[in-house]
Design brief:
The chain starts with 7 loop residues before the first strand and ends in a 7-residue tail after the last strand. It is of the alpha+beta class. It has one domain: Aminopeptidase. Helices cover 31% and strands 25% of the residues.
Length: 178
């Protein structure tokens, strides 16, 4: 589907967590072969853990006609957000942005990112951050298109010790044009 659809972006309800987890796993499944085992299993475990136990995370979903089509976690700045990163990132971080594979290209990821950026602005922050890797070229392309810039001082190695988890940030000084 390539046309924009009407969405409701809102906080996830507790009863929707399993559905949001399943949606996120399905969204990331395209990377399964490239990740290989056991890295893929660790990644799935991380998705589940972040949704179930993510400290201080805002759980946000995109809904259309009663169906969840996208999900994302938004974390406030905090120590230990990433196990392998000692630095505290001084702005909110987006994690595990996922869109139902059948609805990619319809603006859902951008709508979720816009909501996260607005929440960051409303909380007094001037930036929004996220991490991704070159293993996810579609995600990198989207973030760059929206104006996210690299923040290599917050990079760290992934659990496979091969992949570089790359930091990006978006300046909110001029608002949110997307």
């Amino acid at each position: 589907m390539t046309t924009a659809i009407e969405l409701q972006i809102r906080d996830a309800r507790n009863v929707e967590r399993e559905e949001a987890i399943a949606l996120t796993i399905e969204a990331y499944r395209q990377y399964e072969d490239g990740f290989g085992q056991p890295f893929w299993s660790q990644y799935i475990s991380n998705i589940r853990n972040q949704w179930e136990q993510g400290k201080d995370a805002r759980r946000i979903v995109a809904e259309h006609d009663g169906k969840l089509l996208g999900a994302v976690l938004l974390y406030p700045p905090q120590e230990g957000l990433y196990e392998k990163l000692a630095a505290v990132i001084p702005y909110p971080e987006v994690r595990l942005l996922g869109v139902h594979p059948g609805y990619r290209g319809s603006g859902i990821a951008t709508a979720l990112l816009r909501d996260c950026a607005q929440r960051a602005l409303n909380s007094g922050y001037d930036r929004l951050g996220l991490h991704t890797s070159q293993r996810m070229p579609d995600a990198v392309r989207l973030y760059r298109k929206l104006g996210f810039e690299r923040a290599p001082e917050f990079d760290f190695p992934a659990a496979d010790q091969i992949t570089l988890v790359e930091a990006y940030r978006y300046s909110l000084h001029n608002g949110i044009p997307w």
